[in-house]
Design a protein that fits this description.
Layout: H1 3-20, H2 28-50, H3 61-82
């Protein structure tokens, strides 16, 4: 699967990750989109490493699942690093 497919998956996966982990995040919608795109790429990279270099090819459910997993990982990391405490 090409990098453009992972970017497209990332846009959708970022929205789903935000739906799964709702809440106010610093940065707004732009940061959510970027996290989704990078998360989709991260998910593709993780799946390729776990498959021993074969990776996921084509548009299928598992590739989308990996994009969502990558987005969730990055969203959680982002919240841990940039969490605002309320006074």
């Amino acid at each position: 699967m090409g990098i453009l497919s992972w970017i497209l998956f990332g846009l959708i996966a970022g929205a789903i990750a935000k739906f799964i982990l709702p809440g106010r995040d610093p940065g707004g919608i732009i940061v959510t989109i970027v996290i989704g795109i990078v998360g989709g790429l991260l998910g593709g990279w993780i799946s390729t490493r776990l498959a021993g270099g074969a990776g996921i090819s084509g548009f299928n459910v598992m590739s989308f699942v990996w994009a969502v997993i990558g987005s969730l990982i990055l969203l959680l990391l982002y919240r841990l690093i940039f969490h605002r405490t309320r006074a």
